[in-house]
From TrEMBL:
GO terms for biological process: polyphosphate metabolic process. InterPro entries: P-loop_NTPase, PolyP_AMP_Tfrase, PPK2-related. Residues 11-233, 265-486 form the Polyphosphate kinase-2-related domain. Transmembrane segments: none annotated. SUPFAM superfamilies: P-loop containing nucleoside triphosphate hydrolases. Pfam families: PPK2. This is Thymidylate kinase. Keywords: Kinase, Transferase. Its EC number is 2.7.4.9. GO terms for molecular function: dTMP kinase activity; polyphosphate:AMP phosphotransferase activity. Gene3D superfamilies: P-loop containing nucleotide triphosphate hydrolases (3.40.50.300).
């Protein structure tokens, strides 16, 4: 894979000049065509041997194309708030919209490359990290993000000679880092690590391209050709089934039908227990232990099941500076220009904070499925992608609790009619709510499949009978309080 690059091929000035002129025009034209279509994002991932000219080449791309539509994303070691969220959070957070191009330095490959370069690499860790990367990239590719990965490579002699040449001039010496100067001492180990990384993560939908980097002209030309080929690629690359996350096979159980909808609590008992639970929640949320964790609360359920009322009873016990409530409606144009989970990744809380979702990422397997707003392949794929998302949240210290508030059709009808008559509640009822009632069975089937495929130990679903609002509110609070107190 590295044989050609280590031969240090070169392009003469006479060969490069006409090629440069053609490539600059072609790149600019391709860039504007992609902007006009705005159907795909291009991510160019930059990696390779230190001191191979990666930074200089990316600067050149910004010169050859319109830099207003290129977002250069440079990352160092995680720090500050990044350490309180999943490692992939910062990449999700910065994803550019469809039509534009992102160039990524210090990408999600940095930890994998670091592990592979160690004297005694942990091969289990390498396999696990590579698997995470493959899932991430396949998810992005399936959602319209085109990925091309450039590995800049050259021989040990050429790398050392380039560093000396740059150091000789005050105008270029800044381009050489202390790490660059040490590469030749452990070149073989770095080379073998690169080979392992490429072997583990080279796929048809996110390919690696090795860029010979000893000669500046050759490096520039090959980089431009690789980016141009990606820009000109039509359609969406086929993702091999082996790289796509699949939900586990399961027998769908009618869990909604098994609920005790007659469960209720008397008003006097409700008032006293509500105060006790809110007090316990207040203490748990202010505890020192919770400052090392975060809380993600998901509220789903039928229309008029009382999600808003339950959320208010939770937030009554909390400091308003500690939580954020995200009401989830149809995605806006900004969200539609990016992968489905992007807008939810942006709301991931840091430690000591609480994120409350009034409806959530489960919309893809509920309303988008039933109303045929998402293709079957997309919502079927979503179960495993959601499980993966929640697993990353938990691994970073989040406590994830999901609530389905369930009512019967007759109770929902009563509440709809009450809302229409009340001047304080009629804003809550819409024509869409009435339309959804006509598809009660379809929504129930979608909910039962969702519950079966995404109820996992680390992010459990709590089904709550909500025909009696007081009973439902106490159940929600009790589950939250017990889970938070278990942290101690």
């Amino acid at each position: 894979m590295f044989a050609e690059a280590e031969a240090d091929p070169s392009l003469s000035k006479d060969e490069f000049k006409p090629l440069e002129a053609r490539l600059r025009v072609a790149l600019l034209n391709a860039q504007y065509q992609r902007l006009a279509k705005a159907d795909k994002t291009l991510l160019v991932v930059v990696a390779g041997i230190d001191g191979a000219g990666k930074g200089a080449t990316v600067n050149l791309l910004n010169e050859w194309m319109d830099p207003r539509h290129i977002k250069t994303l440079a990352y160092g070691p995680r720090e500050g708030e990044e350490l309180e969220r999943p490692p992939l959070w910062r990449y999700w957070n910065d994803l550019p919209p469809k039509g534009s191009t992102g160039i990524v330095f210090g990408s999600w490959y940095a930890p994998l490359i670091f592990e592979a370069t160690r004297k005694k690499p942990n091969h289990d860790s390498i396999e696990a990290q590579a698997a995470t990367i493959r899932r991430f990239e396949s998810m992005l590719a399936a959602e319209g993000v085109q990925i091309v990965k450039l590995w800049f490579h050259l021989s040990a002699e050429a790398q050392q000679e380039r560093a000396k040449r740059l150091l000789a001039s005050p105008e270029t010496a800044w381009q050489v880092s202390p790490v660059d100067l040490k590469v030749h001492k452990k070149y073989d180990r770095i080379r073998n690590a690169g080979q392992a990384v490429l072997n583990h993560t080279d796929t048809g939908h996110a390919p690696w391209v090795v860029i010979p980097s000893a000669d500046e002209n050759m490096r520039s030309a090959r980089t431009a050709e690789a980016v141009l080929a990606a820009m000109r690629q039509r359609g969406v690359p086929r993702i091999s089934p082996s790289f796509v996350a699949h939900s586990r096979p399961a027998r769908i159980v009618d869990r909604l039908g098994q609920l005790d909808y007659d469960a209720k609590i008397e008003k006097n008992d409700y008032e006293s227990e509500l105060g006790l639970l809110q007090g316990r929640l207040a203490r748990a949320a202010r505890s020192r232990k919770f400052q090392e964790r975060s809380l993600v609360l998901v509220f789903e359920g039928q229309d008029a099941a009382g999600k808003g009322g339950a959320i208010r009873r939770v937030t009554h016990a909390l400091d308003a500076r500690q939580f954020d409530i995200t009401p989830v409606a149809a995605p806006n144009s900004e969200a539609l220009a990016r992968p489905y989970l992007w807008r939810f990744w942006r709301q991931v809380p840091r430690h000591g904070r609480i994120a409350i979702f009034d409806r959530s990422w489960y919309g893809r397997v509920l309303v988008e499925r039933v109303e045929k707003l998402a293709a079957p392949a997309n919502w079927r794929r979503a179960y495993a992608e959601i499980n993966d998302f929640e697993e990353q949240l938990v691994a970073s210290g989040a406590l994830v609790l999901k609530f389905w508030l369930a009512v019967t059709p007759d109770v929902q009808l009563e509440r709809f009619q009450e809302r229409e008559k009340s001047p304080f509640k009629n804003f809550k009822i819409t024509a869409e709510d009435w339309r959804n009632r006509d598809k009660w069975k379809e929504y129930a089937a979608a909910a039962n499949e969702m519950l079966t495929r995404t109820d996992v130990a680390h992010a459990p679903w709590h089904l709550v009978s909500a025909n009696d609002k007081r009973y439902a509110r106490l159940q929600v609070l009790r589950h939250i309080v017990e889970a938070m107190e278990d942290l101690h």
